[in-house]
Amino acid sequence: MISTKEHCCGADMFFDEKKSNKKYRDYLKKGPPRITLEIINQIKSQKIQGKSLLDIGGGIGALQWWFLEMDGARTISIDASSSYLQQSQAHAKENNWDSKTQFIFGDYIEEHKRVNNPDYITLDKVVCCYPDFKEIIKISCTKANSCITLSYPMDDVISKIIFGMAILSTKLKRNLFRPYIHPVRKIRKTFEHCGYERISHKAVFPWHIETYRKIIDKKVYL
Ligand SMILES: C[S@@+](CC[C@H](N)C(=O)[O-])C[C@H]1O[C@@H](n2cnc3c(N)ncnc32)[C@H](O)[C@@H]1O
Prior knowledge:
44% of the residues lie in helices and 20% in strands. It is of the alpha/beta class. It has one domain (4-214): Rossmann fold (3-Layer(aba) Sandwich). Strands 3-2-1-4-5-7-6 form a seven-stranded mixed beta sheet, sandwiched between helices. Strand 2 (74-79), helix 5 (82-94) and strand 3 form a beta-alpha-beta unit.
């Protein structure tokens, strides 16, 4: 397994300025992409007004902009890509959201210590970027006050072939960043062990989109 440091340097190179510009242009033209819209559909059944959102690996920030437009009080983005963060920071400035937004560059596993506990956490196509899925989920379960919504890849043969091609492409580019398919059953078990219950699920090939809610009187195990 590659080290966390290598993974994060790799992510910064992989999610570069070219990708960030393209994602942002697409967002301005068409709005949030399909899987992000599914995440929005699941969160919008929760109260947004006055609440806070920690968007891990938030990319160009589509989820955060929706949250603030819905009267969310505050968003925090922790991302290992400096290009994505710069792009989202520029968008926040253009929309006068400076005082409601916070942008932190680096590895979530370390940088989460710098932020207060948010009401909601989102991980849109991020668990598949991280070698140790248990670590990223356990920290999020301890951190969130209420719900965690995430999208992550299915673990069937076809999805593994699709991801296998993406892995090959990063290897050919000699980038240390790797996408991962983690076992779906173990991801769900981890939430359960951390005292969370699943309240929404949708499958849009090759992704699962799920929301977990903290069961208040159950201990969170780390
Ligand atoms: C596939 S992109 C998804 C971006 C955005 N959520 C979306 O759906 O468009 C994965 C994002 O996770 C970020 N990322 C990967 N590993 C990370 C880590 N350990 N800490 C913080 N961000 C990370 C990457 O920099 C990238 O922005």
